[in-house]
Input
Amino acid sequence: MNQKKTKYCLITNDVETTSILNHRLDDKTAEFVLKEGMPRLLELYEKYNVKATFFYTAHIAKLVPEVVKMVIPYGHEIGSHGYTHEVNQAFEILSFEEQKEHLMKSKAILEDISGEEVISFRAPAARVNRNIAKALIDTGFKIDSSISSQRLDMFMSFGALKKLNWLITPRLPYYTNQHNIFKKGDSKLLEIPISAFVFPYIGTVMRIAPMTFKMTRYLLHLETIFNNRPFVFLTHPNEFIDEVRDFNKIQRRAKNYFSYLLGDVLRHKLKTKNLGVTAIPILEKELQFFKAHKYKFITCNDYYKLKL
Output
């Protein structure tokens, strides 16, 4: 197979206890992810012969270890999504030593449950600072997928100031500078950026703005034809669960009122569109696009091996 002519699609899934409908971390969501979200995705991926990467928080892995074990028979990759998804524990604001502690604990828990080496990482909410490259290298990770090059909606999420670095990060996968994950270097850590072209190529946009999503995909497809950049799609099993709303007022996580309006109120209102089983046929159309255009579905680990 001629690697240069092969188009690759990396389907990545962040597995956590976030209740999108109720706008909070909730341990009860883990059961919905286990019984609804994961089975729906695994069935769909098997139908299209997708080999995907699942990034787990250690928290959900400890709550329901089966949510990790269930992907192994399908040949999917198990990656780390950090120790917790708590906003006040984001990697962007952790010290270097705290980052290493979270990474080591997460890696150990996932490897103990799965019996497999874990070498891929994505930060919760994609929130990182420069130090994360060295922390990942020191704790045995070889792959990161937390950067989203030239994505411009960062002000709708937490950690917006650090995410401004996305504007100047390379679009193609790159080996990072060990002291600055946002720059190329000679380290052994491979950054595989989440696809974006102004708008991110992620499940949220897929569900709430189908025309914008389709346009983004088309532009990214043209770019792939031009420079062989792999598609990296990000979604969450909790986008495919059917929860019940149980609150009247949105929980305030942001410190200032402006961030609360953008990061909590407006973001929540947008993200609840097409949740649950109705999102499955929307995702299926994306997989059909990649099949029709002869993309190969591979994991982050498999892509890393191609780059060695």
